[in-house]
Design a protein that fits this description.
Helices cover about 30% and strands about 20% of the residues. The chain has about 475 residues and is α+β, with helices and mostly antiparallel strands. The protein has a domain of about 180 residues: Vanillyl-alcohol Oxidase, Chain A, domain 3 (3-Layer(aba) Sandwich), CATH 3.40.462. Strands 14-11-13-12-17-18-16-20 form an 8-stranded antiparallel beta sheet. Helix 1 packs antiparallel against helix 3. The protein starts with about 20 loop residues before the first helix and ends with a helix. About 50% of the residues are buried. The structure holds flavin-adenine dinucleotide.
């Protein structure tokens, strides 16, 4: 196997703790019922709920789905305040029971699947916007708040979240920081882990006497995108941005090369764009377009969320690049599915609703994006359908690619991954379950140190932080 090849996982890690016994769970439950009479607990008598609250959207990966079979919580706790979170953390630490946090359960890699059973802590009841500093635009919000709800709460103050996943209506802000990475707004604000996108965290440790910590921006970094393996996030302090009624713009292109060149060009103009999304013709044809937007009939489509001021130049400029303006509508007056729910992994979702046997990859394309894509298209022909998104990466405008791929077995997927890497693309692998393997591939010592400090018994989301197992 070449050094660029990737072996996809065929099993769960060795050394996972055994799920706790029924007797241990019963003791833990009795303790919690005695101490926290208001805390909702779902046990074996609610087995359908235990299954449901132990899953996320891992079905997008035919590699991961079989690995998670039979992995589920033995007890779900649904706190509505921080005191209850502390009580659950203390009980789990005393009884040595694994605890896995859950927000909206929309992650793609089984991030909130409890591989070693135990307790799932469903944080959706912690959802208050505690504070909005109207001068600085900084908010403190509880972890379980849904981002769509938060957007509605911030709008009257003229503020908006900088970054949101396309799942903003069903995903929590805590789950986004702990499990997400990029999304709507990444064209302007980069990725979640870029310094400045997270200002602080309130965290409960997993110890017999849990601590409630208020971490500043620097100390919060190791918990950002750590899958809840090194602390229970109860609240977050985040910067916001000005609320803008983005104009949704759809432009058609007959030639893929022209469409790609336009997607690269728009990012260099002196206009504000919140999102740049390019769909190859077959993908465009499968999308459920917003009301009033014509259905795709064989053209490639460039989807933009543009500042209203940009509309004075965008249509004419895009026509010069070979595009045809097909539709425009401010987001606020749009009916049906908004354009922002056709991007990121919502493109995959809509495609898979008609083609459930398909899967996908996530790649940061090298800066010579055109050359990489031309070669990939030459090697793989029409077997793959292309979907690109614009992001800012370390100050430069770049394109990431979420290609849609028919599932033809592990070896073929591994071959494609190897080809992408050989051509200079960086893989964020959606077919693995550890923090490291889905990211840069290397252990982040700060994440492991934070786990040692805040979860010394290794009970939080076991099996997901490779650096902890290998230490
Ligand atoms: C159709 C689709 C589109 C998507 N689009 C995007 C996208 O644009 N960008 C993107 O980044 N992701 C995307 N995702 C993945 C996912 O939706 C997001 O990352 C989302 O923000 C996760 O939030 P959640 O509340 O559902 O988290 P969950 O799935 O519940 O949890 C995610 C991880 O965070 C941990 N966690 C949750 N809450 C806490 C907490 N309070 N403290 C500590 N750990 C916690 C969990 O244990 C788990 O490891 C998409 C997924 C789908 C299915």
């Amino acid at each position: 196997m070449s050094s660029l090849a990737v072996a996809l996982p065929s099993g769960l890690p060795n050394g996972l703790p055994q799920p706790p016994s029924d007797a241990t769970l019963a003791t833990l439950r009795r303790e919690l019922e005695r101490e926290q009479t208001e805390l909702e607990l779902l046990g074996l008598e609610r087995s359908a709920d235990l299954q449901r609250l132990s899953r996320d959207c891992f079905a997008y990966s035919p590699v991961l789905a079989p690995l998670f079979e039979g992995r589920h919580a033995q007890l779900v706790a649904r706190p509505t305040n921080v005191e209850q979170v502390i009580a659950v953390a203390a009980a789990c630490a005393r009884q040595q029971v694994p605890l896995t946090c859950r927000g909206g359960g929309t992650g793609n890699y089984g991030q909130c699947v409890p591989l070693a059973g135990g307790v799932v802590l469903d944080l959706s009841g912690l959802k208050r916007l505690r504070q909005l500093d109207r001068t600085a635009g900084v908010i403190t919000v509880e972890a379980g708040a849904l981002m769509g709800d938060l957007e509605r709460q911030l709008a009257p103050a003229g503020r908006a979240l900088r970054l949101m996943p396309s799942t903003l209506r069903s995903a929590s802000i805590g789950g986004f920081i702990a499990g997400g990475s990029v999304g709507i707004g990444s064209q302007r604000w980069g990725i979640l882990r870029d310094p400045g996108n997270l200002l602080g965290l309130e965290v409960v440790t997993l110890e017999a006497t849990p601590r409630l910590l208020n971490l500043d921006a620097a100390s919060s970094e190791p918990l950002n995108h750590a899958y809840g393996t090194n602390g229970i996030i109860t609240a977050l302090t985040l910067p916001t941005t000005e609320a803008i009624d983005w104009v949704q713009v759809v432009v058609g292109f007959d030639a893929w090369e022209q469409a790609l060149s336009a997607a690269q060009s728009v990012s260099r103009w002196a206009i504000e764009l919140n999102s740049v999304n390019l769909l190859e013709a077959p993908v465009a044809a499968a999308m459920p377009w917003p009301a009033g937007c014509p259905k795709a009939t064989g053209e490639h489509r460039l989807l933009l969320l543009a500042h209203p001021a940009a509309m004075a130049v965008l249509p004419a400029r895009l026509m010069q690049l070979g595009g045809t303006l097909l539709w425009q509508e401010p987001q606020s007056s749009s009916k049906g599915i908004p354009l922002r729910e056709l991007g990121w992994n919502h493109t995959t979702l809509h495609w898979r609703s008609a083609n459930p046997e398909w899967t996908y990859l996530q790649l940061l394309l090298p800066q010579n994006e055109g050359a990489c894509l031309v070669e990939l298209r030459r090697r793989w022909g029409s077997a793959i359908h292309w979907h690109l998104e614009g992001i800012k990466q370390q100050g430069s405008q770049r394109l990431v690619c979420l290609p849609l791929i028919p599932w033809q077995g592990r070896e073929r997927l591994e071959q494609l991954i190897s080809d992408c890497r050989e051509l200079g693309a960086f893989l964020f692998n959606p077919h693995v379950f550890t923090v490291e393997d889905g990211g840069l591939g290397v252990v982040d010592a700060d994440q492991v140190r934070a786990k040692a400090a805040y979860d010394p018994g290794g009970l939080l989301n076991p099996g997901k932080l490779r650096g902890w197992q290998e230490r």
